[in-house]
Request: fold
Amino acid sequence: VQLVESGGGLVQPGGSLRLSCVASGFTFSSYVMSWYRQAPGKEREFVADTTPIGITNYAESVKGRFTISRDNSKNTVYLQMNGLKPEDTAVYYCYRRGYWGQGTQVTVSS
Reply:
């Protein structure tokens, strides 16, 4: 199993980023895929997940601003992040049951 995230970077408050996670080594369409994040000095926390058929679930802190989606034909899960705030600064991780990606840094700062 391999999960490779990309799309992080530095963005100003109010800006947008789209994270991608390309998966391999398993039947992607059979699994719930999730995004988590970990800010400096804090525990890793749930951000959003999507079931194999696209039912989604979000942390309250990102509802209405972030959108998780998946493309089963590309073995990829996305996280569209709009209205970014400084408190969204963290390393964002892709997760499939039992496996983590390496993470991608998102920094929201003016």
